[in-house]
Write a structure and sequence with these properties.
The chain has helices spanning about 135-140, 155-160, 225, 270-280, 285-290, 295-305, 315-325, 330-345, 345-350, 355-370, 375-380, 380-390, 420-430, 435-450, 450-465, 470-480, 485-500; strands at about 1-5, 15-20, 20-30, 30-40, 50-55, 65-70, 70-80, 90-95, 95-100, 115, 125, 180, 185-190, 190-195, 210. The protein has about 500 residues and is α+β, with helices and mostly antiparallel strands. Strand 6 (about 65-70) and strand 7 (about 70-80) form a beta hairpin. Helix 10 (about 355-370) crosses helix 11. The longest helix is centred in the C-terminal third of the chain and has 17 residues, at about 355-370.
Length: about 500
């Protein structure tokens, strides 16, 4: 496909065409030289392509052609610089090219003709000097929607962050080096105007214009995250979670031209989550809507109807990416709490997923609680942990309390150990009939109170409710109901005696 050609009337100048996984650049003066440079252009994706041709003397290595893709140098080749004195009047971008064949030309790179460019082309710039790699990276960091003049008063329009290479510098920036800059927005009818600042430009203002050729359509590009508000905002994607039954996998050979890679039904939920994350990323308006509409609460409810096969490692990975997006936004404190409460720490969503997914989920939660202990204190205190265990964790699925569908009794707890914490622990022991579950919780309590600061607070609250008699009564209940033998009860009593030597055990037989 033709990329560009800048030639004089007698055919001298330079051109470039795109072939499969490579770009072929030609320099034409008295002789013609072609070089091939490897580039990996992905279809249906925007790329930033920059060619820099610098003049060099023979003893210093000669002229050098560099190819940058998305701000990164991907190829560098020696190539003669086409020095011409005439005006380049035969200049085209993205059009079909027909070039004469030269006898001395390498047959591998011989180009007789090419097809027109098939795709979209954003702003096009030509500079009068070989720009540096830092300046290339700076242009790339502006994004595909930038189409202006690289003036210092545009910095606030683009971003508040400094750009590499000093591209907006009033003295050594890019504005003074622009020969022409063309884009679809600076147009009238079928004519494109040069956006170069022309205060000190030697050429007349109207000497560089471009005519849109037949078959080319001018269009204005907008990012989805910037215009989604027109149809209702980020919430318009939520119903997609309920459409999995209507989606059928593509059969082999039905993927058309291969522009889009088909994805399986098991990946559908992950794709929707990644879509929502991309809309939230660095967009304050969409983040505010997500907060005001209680978006994560709605997602947590909708995900309960998603088949467990779709709540897999790919889906969890997509949720981790979404968490990182909201954790680095301006509303992170509130959105992170919502995400943990309604998604990550919502067993109703994950209870039927495979063990590998659940283990990875809770390891991720532990990492987040370690990174920010405030989240643990506000979202995952003892009463809520016990509620989750009571409802969703059992040794025997036949237990009448292991139903996995009751509302949480204590969704939010206080900062310090309180009477309510001990009451929640007692309520769990009184209602649970799963002894394996009770044993695990007792071991957890014993390990926790082995820390002296926590032990003192724990004993204070236990004493206020009746002291050790609470646990003795629980053991007696278990023995009466046949859940524990006398020997097992005595073993548990000894463990409590070792764990809580400061408690008053007098009068107990």
């Amino acid at each position: 496909m033709g990329l560009f050609s800048f030639l004089t009337e007698n055919g001298r100048g330079c051109f470039a065409v795109l072939a499969k996984d490579k770009l072929i650049y030609g320099s034409i003066n008295q002789k013609r030289q072609c070089v091939s440079m490897h580039v990996n252009l992905v279809r249906k994706k925007w790329h930033f392509l920059c060619l820099v041709h610098s003049i060099g003397r023979a003893f210093s290595g000669g002229s050098l052609l560099k190819c940058y893709l998305d701000g990164v140098l991907v190829s560098s080749e020696k190539c003669r610089y086409a020095k011409v004195n005439e005006s380049m009047t035969n200049c085209m971008v993205g059009s079909k090219m027909s070039l004469p064949t030269y006898e001395e030309e390498n047959a591998m790179y011989s180009i007789k003709d090419s097809s027109p460019f098939l795709g979209q082309i954003g702003p096009v710039y030509m500079f009068s000097d070989a720009i540096t790699s830092e300046q290339v990276q700076g242009i790339y960091s502006l994004g595909p929607s930038y189409m202006y003049e690289f003036l210092d008063n545009e910095i606030s329009v683009s971003s508040g962050n400094p750009f590499p290479g000093g591209i907006f510098d009033s003295k050594d920036g890019l504005a003074s080096k622009i020969i022409f800059g063309l884009n679809a927005q600076a147009s009238s009818g079928r004519t494109l105007y040069n956006v170069s600042p022309l205060a000190d430009h030697p050429l007349d203002k109207h000497s560089i214009e471009a005519t849109v050729m037949v078959g080319t359509q001018l269009c204005s590009r907008r990012l989805l995250q910037q215009i989604i508000y027109c149809v209702g905002g980020v919430s318009v994607f939520f119903p997609l979670f309920t459409q999995s039954d209507l989606y059928e996998n593509e059969e082999p050979g039905q993927s058309g031209q291969g522009f889009l890679s088909p994805f399986t039904k098991e990946r559908l939920t992950a794709e929707v989550i990644e879509l929502i994350a991309s809309v939230l990323d660095e967009n304050l308006a969409n983040q505010q809507q997500m907060l005001l509409l209680s978006g994560f609460s709605i997602l947590g409810f909708l995900l309960q109807s998603v088949p467990p096969q779709q709540l897999n490692m790919q889906t969890l990975s997509a949720f981790k990416h979404m968490f990182n997006v909201v954790a680095n936004c301006g509303l992170s404190e509130m959105l992170v709490k919502d995400a943990i409460s309604h998604i990550f720490l919502n067993p109703l969503v994950w209870v039927y997923t495979v063990y590998k997914v659940q283990r990875e989920l809770y390891m991720f939660l532990i990492q987040q609680f370690d990174n920010d202990p405030r989240l643990l204190k506000s979202l995952c205190r003892l009463p809520r942990v016990l509620d989750i265990i009571r409802q969703f964790y059992w040794d025997s699925a036949k237990c009448q309390y292991a139903i996995g569908g009751k509302p949480l009794l204590h969704p939010i707890t206080k900062q310090n150990i309180a009477v309510s914490d001990i009451e929640a622990l007692i309520a769990f022991f009184e209602t649970s009939q799963d002894m394996a579950c009770i044993e695990d919780v007792l071991h957890m309590v014993i390990r926790a109170v082995s820390q002296k600061p926590l032990l003192a607070s724990f004993l204070e609250q236990v004493d206020s409710l009746g002291g050790c008699h609470i646990f003795v009564n629980l053991l007696q209940r278990c023995v009466k109901e046949g859940a524990l033998t006398n020997l097992s009860a005595w073993a548990w009593f000894n463990q409590f005696n070792v764990a809580f030597p400061c408690m008053q055990w007098k009068g107990i037989r």
